[in-house]
Structures are given as structure tokens and as C-alpha cells.
Amino acid sequence: MPTPDPVRGTVNENVPGGQPVGDKVWNVLLVGVGGQGVVLASDILAAAALEAGWDVKKSEIHGMSQRGGSVFSHVRFGPIVHSPTIPRGEVDVLASLERIEALRWSGWAHPGAAVCYVDHEIHPQGVRAYNPGVDDEIARLFGTTIRFEDHALKSRISAKVKNTALLGAISLLVPIPQQAFLAALAGHVPARTEEANATAFAIGREIGSSALAEATEMAEMAGRPAPEQEPTHVE
Amino acid sequence: MATKLLMSGNEAIALGAYEAGVALGCGYPGTPSTEIIETLVRRPDVYTEWSVNEKVALEVGLGAALAGGRALVTMKHVGLNVAADPLFTSAYTGVNAGLVVVTADDPSMHSSQNEQDNRNYALAAKLPMFEPSDAREARELTRAAFELSEAYDTPVLLRSTTRLSHATGVVEVDEDAPAPQRHPLGFERQPAKYVMIPSNAKRRRVDVEDRWARLREAVETHPANRVEPGSSDIGVITSGVPYEYVREVLPDAGVLKLGIVHPLPRRLVEDFARQYRTVYVVEELDPVIETQVRAWGIACHGKDVFPSIGEFSPGTLRAALGLPQPETIAEPAVEVPPRFPALCVGCPHGHVYNALRERGMVVSGDIGCYSLGVMPPYSAMDTLLDMGASVTMAHGMDAVLQGQPDRPPVAAVIGDSTFAHSGLTGLLNACWNQRDGLFIVLDNGTTAMTGGQPNPLSGERLGREDTMHLDYGYLARAFGIPEENFAAVDANNRKAVTAAIDDLAGRSGVRLLAVIGMCIIEAKDLKKIDKFVGKRDARKLELIEVDAHAHA
């Protein structure tokens, strides 16, 4: 089981010869479909990590992003980051703007990793509907699950800032202070949308907090360990 | 004051070139190189252009360098094939101001038709080549490349890959840094150096060898190459992005990090190898470094353990070295349907493909967004090789199928940018050699797949500046294509598209059809800057003239 650390967060002991606590690199894999704003969300996350004082690298594949294919962005931050791509099995947080994409990329995560996703569906060509068991499977596979119900979310924020709400949830799971996220948002969105984005971020945190609190309650009742929450970031 | 910024490898290369006082930047769009020029264009004191193709770009760059302006030329790996002719002889002419040629390779072919390893060009063309590992180094080595270029009077190659160009890292920038220094402009007449007739070339060939002896010495102490001592008995020789995977997976190994991959520093390699029980050469694709290391009699592991195909990852290294892999979440028990890229809904190209498939035509295809015509639901492309090959391969097919009974009709489809790049030459060849075939230009007003760049058909150049555009009607006339063998139709008018294809399919000789529409992404971008209506109406004017005679 991963070891919680109040300063640097958890270390993934599943990586043999894994880095000691002080060197941990955090790995967030952001995924979705072309046009959903995955790359912008990853830009903001990377900027937030830099703002918080971490070394940061991110990488993605361009070109196909607006042609309806799967879009993914690897974001890594820590004291020193070497590989620009996340090693398979070392994703700490999988964040998805689309329902099936959260499942598609699950094999990159380590056991006990967290997932936060919007259950919005964008069907691939020729697919009418997804298998009804998708959400249960996601919850079964991941250690911590934060699910945004798309219709409920859209009643509170514009579809254009869903990716910001997802960042709000991510902020509960990684050692980057809220302030760093908000500063990064301000630097990446048009001035007239700053308020809408800040609101979406807060709503994302609120929904995420509820989901984590519920999960903690249920785990306690069942005598299981609670899901990891935001480690205190000291910088 | 130093500020930490996040930037991609491409942005870092552009920054390094700017800081080196580059006077000119040019290239042809090609993933993963495209953003270098798109970043450099923001500097008002640098002349930047998209060129028609990579050969043109490299020649433009060399001309600038000979006239005293430092030049940066960029392209993807297959683009260097197009630029290979000037590349090889440029080693003989040398430079005046520095010339740096960026080749952005694509191991694993994320967006390319092959994964050729362009380090081979450095050996064949006798040009030094730098290879950075991250954004910070990309900026530094671009500057170093210009210095080396002038110090040794040679064009210099700089190699990037997708995981450098399209990865973002931290770069420290000094906002108070003084403006970059420029090389003094001016062309000095030196025909013995610049005019490569055989008598001059023979003399310059000796200079190339002399230069090479000096370069081999220089790389032994160049700061781009460095040794990181290790505590284990494993030594790794590596370069580029793979260096980062080595550091991720083997923190205790000794590492010889090569920032210059050609020429290799022999003494440095020998001294390093001597200190370790086992030496690995970690490089993607071809055993370029390994072959030379073995030729020096140094025992090492390379392609006997590491893959020759595709890019690496930390997982690749762990697998090759027999190291345990991290545990992952189990595969989902629920089906995950695949998601394939496809033409956007509303793309002007789709209908042409349907029409061609319905008529059972063999479709000779080309490179661009429209390459997606090979995918369902269209499944309407039979060949794709390189830029411009649609026109020429159709011509070759026709040459042997001509006169055969029941031969399938052949059509070529090519995009607007591809047409200007190298389709014109093929079309001229077909006209001049009196071939037969239907040649269709799918004109969507932009170079779309690479992110929407202007081209000689779109009416704009880099920077959204209005300019001339190639006129299909005049072109057809200039190429001797009879009026009845030419048409230009509105892509959104499906009836007109089908009628034109049917009409032209029934004729013989070279037939040119321009299907003119607007990429929906480009349309959105034009609307943002209030240019959409003007562009749309201008493109309609192209059609009116031809509609008149098509119905005559």
C-alpha cells in the first residue's frame, strides 16, 4: 500500500527500486476527445505546478487532436523530472473529460491511483451506446473515484469550463496549493472568463470533496483504509 | 532578472535561434517541427516565411547565410529527403553566417509515413549534428549550433524528436538580457567556394575532409558532451530524449551524454567505456552510435537488447534490461470501443471520396488531412507514399495500364498545399508526356493537418498577410490542358461535384478538377479575425468563371 507523507504526499511503492519520498514525481494523465480542452487543462496544471515550485514536464501528440481521436496529455511534476512521458503503471491521477476515455487509459495507472472524470459521452463513429457497466468498472478498478455527473455539472457551469472544474477535483489529489491553480488559470484564460473559470474550479473542488468525504465514510464503515486526500504542500 | 518559463522544445529552439541573432527563419509545415517557425514569426526583427517546400526552404536559408544573415531552416524528418539535394552540396560551399537545419524526427510514426532516423543524414552529408534532450538544452544547443557553424564554416544539423518538440519543460529566461548580436550582413564574392562546378567542388572536397579532422578533435571537449559518473558497474552511452529515460530508470549508472551525435568523440567514448564492466548504447531507431562504437573495438550492448522499431519509454528500457515493471491496474472487464481519427463533420472533402468510390476508381492519394479518406466510411484511397506522389504514381499506373481491356480508371487526389509543394511538377510531367488521368485538387483553403498554415493557394502568407494566390484556370491553360478538361467547383455543391467528376471521367487526356471548399476549423479562425466573408467570396469568384464554360 502507498505510504502517505504529509509533506510530499504518497510514494508509489509499487515501483521497484522506487524513488524515496523526497524524490517523488507526481504523474497526472489528462485525457478526452479532440476539442474538449484537454491540452488547455494540461497547460494550466503544468503552470500551477511550476507556480508551486516544482520542476515540470508535459507531453502530448498533436495533429490528430481535432480529428475526433483520443487526446491525452502527460503532466509530471516533482523536484526533478526526467522522462517527459509517464511510465506505464505510474499514473497517480487519471483525469478524463469523457466517460469511456477514463476506462481506456486505466491500464497506465498504478493500483490505488485516483480517477476523476466527467461522465459526458462522445461516441466514436459507429458506436451507438457504451456498455452500461462503465462507471461501476471505473469505480472497481481505481483506488479513489471522483465522478462528475455531466447533466448536473452543466446545470451549474458552461460546457466550456468543464475542464476547469476537473482541475478543481485534481487540486484535491495533488500537492499543489489552490492559489497556484488560480494564478495559472488567470494566466491562461481570457480576462472576461476569469470569474467563470474561478467559479468552475471551486465547484469542481466542492463536488470532488463531497465524493471523497462519501468514500471515506463508506470505507470507515466497511473497515477499509480511507482514500488519500490532499497532502499538505509545504513550500 | 531570471524567470522560469514553461516552453516546448520547439519554442525553445526558436528562442535559441532568436538569441543567436538569427536573421531569417523558414521551413515547410511538418509535425513535429511546425511550431518553431510559428514561434519565430512573432519576432519582428527576424524575416520568417513558410516556403513552398523543404528544398526551397533550405536553399533560401543557405542564400541568406551566404549573404551574412544567420538562418534557421526547419522541417520534419521526411522533409529532409526533399531538401537532401542542397543539403549534401552545402557541406562543400560552407556558409558565411551560420546555417542551422532542424530535422524533427518521428520515432513511432505518430504522424508520419515512416520513422527514418535522420542521424544517418549527418554521416552521409558530412555535417555535424546536435541532439538536445529537453527544452532547456534545445535552446542552448541551438545557440551552440550557430557558433559551431561559423567556427567551422559548415551548415549544422539539429535533431529533435516528437518527445522533445512536443514536450514542455522549464527554461530560465533573463528578461533583462541585451538584444541579440547580429552577424555583419554582406555578400563576399567567392565563386571558388560557392559555385560548385566540378573543378571547384574537387578542391572544396579536400576542405571538407580538413574540416572534419578539426571537428573530430573539437567534439572531444565541447560542453554539449558530458560524462555523469555512476556508482554502478553499468555505463550508458546515449543522446537526445532517451537520456531522460536512462536517468529515470538507471539513476546509479554512469552516463556519457552526447549532445553532438556526429562526429562522435572517440577518446571520450573510449575513456568512458574503460571504466564500466558493461556498456549499453541507448538510442532509438538505427544503431548509429553503436555501429561506430563497435567499429572502435569497444564491446557494448545495443540493438541486441533494445528495440530497433519505435520510440522508447522508461518501460522499454526496463523490459530490455530485465528490470521489474511497475504494477498496473487490471485491464477493464468492460469493452472499450476504439476511437479512430476521421475527417471532421462538415469537412468539404468527404463527398469527393464517396463519388470516386462509387465509380470504382483506383485512388492515388497524398499527404494531409485528406489522407483520412483511406478510413471508413470512405475507404477511398489506394496509395500514399510521399508529398506529390498522388499525381505521379497515377501517371505511372496509367502508363502501363493504358490500352488494357477492363482497366480501372485512376484518379489522383491531392491537397492544395501538397499541390504547391510538389504536385505542380508531377502535373506538368503528365501534361508534357501526354498522359491520361483525372487529377483532383482538394482545396480547403489551408494546410490543415499541421494546424492550419497558409500556402500559395490560400491567398495569405505566414502572419495572415494577404498575398497573391495560384489561379487554377490560368494554370490549366499554361499547362496546355484544354478548356473542356478543366473544372473548378464548389465543394459544398454536391451536385456540381458529382457532375464535374462524371463529365471529366468521360473524357480523355489530362483532366484537372479543383474542388474548392473551406476547412471548418479555418473558417472558425477566419471569423475570429473578420476575414471569413472576404475569403469565401473571393474563392467563389474562382468558380463563376468556370461554371460558365462547364455548362457551355
Automatic annotation (TrEMBL), chain A:
Pfam families referenced in this protein's UniProt entry, alphabetically: POR
Entry superkingdom: Bacteria
Keywords in alphabetical order: Oxidoreductase, Pyruvate
Span of domain Pyruvate/ketoisovalerate oxidoreductase catalytic: 34-206
Region (Disordered): 216-235
Keyword match Transmembrane helix: no
InterPro entries per the UniProt record, alphabetical: IorB_Oxidoreductase (IPR052198), Pyrv/ketoisovalerate_OxRed_cat (IPR019752), Pyrv_flavodox_OxRed_cen (IPR002869)
GO molecular function, one term: oxidoreductase activity, acting on the aldehyde or oxo group of donors
Protein name: Indolepyruvate ferredoxin oxidoreductase beta subunit
TrEMBL record, chain B:
Domain Pyruvate flavodoxin/ferredoxin oxidoreductase pyrimidine binding: 16-199
Coiled coil regions in record: none
Cofactor (UniProt): [4Fe-4S] cluster
One Pfam family, short name: POR_N
Signal peptide stretch: none
The protein's assembly and partners: Heterodimer of the IorA and IorB subunits.
SUPFAM superfamilies named in the record: Thiamin diphosphate-binding fold (THDP-binding) (SSF52518), TK C-terminal domain-like (SSF52922)
InterPro entries: HACL1-like, IorA, Pyrv_Fd/Flavodoxin_OxRdtase_N, THDP-binding, TPP_enzyme_TPP-bd, Transketo_C/PFOR_II
CDD domains: TPP_IOR_alpha, TPP_PYR_PFOR_IOR-alpha_like
This protein's UniProt keywords: 4Fe-4S, Electron transport, Iron, Iron-sulfur, Metal-binding, Oxidoreductase, Pyruvate, Transport
Molecular functions (GO terms): 4 iron, 4 sulfur cluster binding; indolepyruvate ferredoxin oxidoreductase activity; magnesium ion binding; thiamine pyrophosphate binding
Entry-linked Gene3D superfamilies: 3.40.50.970
Keyword Electron transport recorded: yes
Domain Thiamine pyrophosphate enzyme TPP-binding: 366-509
Lineage: Bacteria, Bacillati, Actinomycetota, Actinomycetes, Propionibacteriales
Function, in words: Catalyzes the ferredoxin-dependent oxidative decarboxylation of arylpyruvates.
Organism per entry: Raineyella antarctica
Protein name (record): Indolepyruvate oxidoreductase subunit IorA
